[in-house]
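Researcher: Structure prediction, please.
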Amino acid sequence: MNIIEAIISLGLPVSIMSWWVHSWMYRNNLLDKQASHKETDQAVKEIRKATNETGVQTGDYWTNKWLRFGGGFYGLTALWTFIVIEVQEIWWLITHIPTVIDLLSNGIFHLAIAFIKNQAMTFAQAFSWVVNWGGSGFNLIFFFSAYIGFYLGMKLASHMDIKVATSKASNYFSDNK
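Model: Predicted structure follows.
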């Protein structure tokens, strides 16, 4: 049962997200489809460094978020974990309206502090995803499920030929390599 849970809750979503960001980067000529896994990782690191130094974004919301989470396998899995935690928290807010009203009754300052604290905790949980998935402690099945999902998504993206318009940002990155 743990293997199925790992595939459905982590491996498959990470695979889809990996396919999305890599497809977008291949379509916009930010990555070379013929590059090895190591060369692709290096290119992603260079793009991430360029976005941090220049402030120029890639043009795709999810690709930008992935790069902000560090790019690569770990960053994409942290991003997925962040999304899962945020959705769970939104659901909690919807189903616990009296508690939300109590938070509001303490004043806007306390609400802002609680929000900032919650976001910091969510961010920390997302980056420590390796111990949060699959119960307590490090779970090898979830780790490998995520890694295989990331790798398969990247490989699938490199073998697909999707014709779409390119981003203006792709011109910036390809001109500055």
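Model: Residues 2-27 form the longest helix (26 residues).
Researcher: Thanks, that helps.
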